[in-house]
Amino acid sequence: MRIQRVSSKWAKTKVILQNRLLAIFIPETRKYSLAALNELLGTYGTVYIKPDRGTYGNGVMRAEQRTVNLSPSGQQPVNGDYGTGSSEAAVEQKIMYILRHGLEAEAFSTTEELHNALKPKIKGRSYLIQQGIDLLRHADRPFDLRVLTQKRPDGGWETTGMLGRVAAPQKIVTNYHNGGSVFTVNALFKEHMGPAEMASTLQSLKSLGVKIAMQLETAYPGLKEIGLDIALDQHHDVWLLEVNTLPSIIAFKLIHDKSIYRKIHRYAVAYGRLKRRKTAVSRR
Prior knowledge:
Elements (H helix, E strand, L loop, with lengths): L8 H9 L2 H4 L5 E3 L2 H11 L1 E6 L9 E10 L21 E10 L2 E5 L2 H12 L4 E5 L5 E2 L2 E11 L5 E10 L14 E3 L1 H5 L5 H23 L7 E8 L5 E7 L13 H13 L14
Antiparallel strand pairs: 1-6, 2-3, 2-6, 3-4, 4-5, 7-8, 8-9, 8-11, 9-10, 11-12
Protein name: Endospore coat-associated protein
Pfam families: ATPgrasp_YheCD
């Protein structure tokens, strides 16, 4: 049987939301519209706007609602920053909307202006808007996790690999293909939690990978592998940002423990994604 791939993030999200025990891990997610932009920005302050079909973080944008202190002229934020700091010169507060994409940032006075700036970037394609999560950070840069879950040769599901992805400076996405750095999960977690919490969280992530795979399999029986993009917020709560059914496994080669990639490769060969390595034949 061919390996089934599902490109629509929205389709996968709807299947997972059918399971109330898994739905709690998904940030509020909707199809993009001006109404959704207004409501989610007003509720969460930060949202991510991303293509329904896409990989490697391409096309992902972040919008933020900020209260800024204006100078007496009312023309510029105090100190030239879209922050929330105070100043004796500040005489007026104003809500502004900041759009970040790539290394660029733009400011708008209304959500309508923000929406109009988004339209030529979206170009009529299907986009989603998702509640922003305040990610844990390493060296003052946000990080998330990739959790890889695969079909075993015996047909069961197993979480075979986890790694951390730290965003490149000034970037809003963490993907390795977008300049992100790869770390072991342990190296990132030990800055934020003790050994007991770390062990419990790792076990929960392994279990979550299997549960998500089993739920998706109810709608897509040809799945053989999934990559979960997982965020941990400042309270260490776990959030499922999205699921990839054609997960990249290249970054797992960078992990020092080579046994992890060997297992990933062995399972991928068994279900037909990769070809078996040729072994050298010795000659006498």
